[in-house]
Design goal:
Layout: H1 10-28, H2 45-65, H3 74-77, H4 90-108, H5 127-149, H6 157-170, E1 192-196, E2 202-206, E3 213-216, E4 223-226, H7 229-236, E5 245-248, H8 250-260
Parallel strand pairs: 1-4
Antiparallel strand pairs: 1-2, 2-3, 4-5
Helix pairs in contact: 1-4, 1-5, 2-4, 2-5, 6-7
């Protein structure tokens, strides 16, 4: 049961980085940037915007320099890194960073080997990774901003489905399933999770082997999650998802969610 490749191509991911950033800037325009972001505890809206802009600039440096080792990520994780920026200029600054990132990605192309934080056995260490990752990093933080400002959060179904598949890929890294002291085993004979987004897609995650494997399509599952694809994506990322319904072994599903969300705390 092998994992499927992305249904989006490199150029579409580049376009999504810019489009999602423009929407994020629109959501935040005129908003109170000191308003807390409930889905990012301890953050306010201004910090969220600075985080996304820093993320884009960090990824752009990796791509532009073709870095094969990690580079300093202070501009992503240090709240003071961009504190000097005038709040009124944050929207333009965000869009500028997204444009620069997309431009550098296009200049280098999708297949150049660069460093990524992803598992080398599962994810190709290439500029293509960064196009996809930054598209969905931006999209999810747009959801955070929309929650704060009351803006409408609408996502193209095909884009949301590809973001779900990126999550499922990340859920197969060793940190998400290897045995841990005092933690119930995730893997076991006959265990499987089904994710049903109706016409937007359906996925089955097999937990019955030596490691998790996912594929497109349905099948017999121990637990299932069903809802509109955008709500399904938000559910996976531990965001409010009112349209999602779950059935079956809730303990297995909760354990899987706890294990796979480890990287959200990084």
């Amino acid at each position: 049961m092998g994992e499927a490749v992305s249904t989006f191509d490199f150029e579409e991911h580049c376009q999504a980085i810019v489009a999602q950033t423009r929407l994020l800037a629109d959501h935040a325009e005129g908003a109170d940037l000191t308003a807390p972001v409930p889905t990012c505890p301890g953050w306010h809206l201004g910090r969220l915007l600075r985080h996304v802009g820093g993320d884009h600039r960090w990824a752009e440096e990796i791509v532009r320099t073709r870095a094969t080792r990690p580079i300093d990520d202070e501009q992503v994780n240090d709240p003071a890194a961009h504190a000097h920026l005038d709040d009124r200029s944050l929207g333009d600054w965000l869009v500028e960073g997204a444009d620069r990132l997309a431009g550098s990605l296009r200049a280098v192309g999708p297949d150049v080997r660069v460093w990524t934080p992803a598992d080398e056995e599962l994810v190709e260490q290439s500029t293509g990774f960064w196009a996809r990752r930054m598209a969905y990093e931006t999209l999810l933080h747009r959801a955070d901003a929309a929650l704060v400002t009351g803006a409408e959060f609408v996502v193209d179904e095909r884009l949301a489905a590809d973001a779900v598949e990126e999550w499922l890929l990340f859920s197969t890294v060793p940190e998400a399933y290897e045995p841990q002291p005092g933690v119930p085993d995730l893997l076991g004979t006959g265990r499987a999770l089904r994710f049903d987004a109706g016409t937007a897609g359906e996925w089955l995650l097999d937990l019955g082997g030596e490691r998790p494997r996912w594929r497109r399509g349905g099948g017999v599952a121990t637990a299932s999650v069903r809802g509109p694809v955008t709500d399904l994506l938000l559910f996976l990322y531990d965001r409010p998802a009112p349209g999602v319904r779950t059935r079956g072994d809730s303990r297995l599903l909760d354990l899987w969610l706890e294990r796979t969300r480890f990287w959200l705390e990084a």
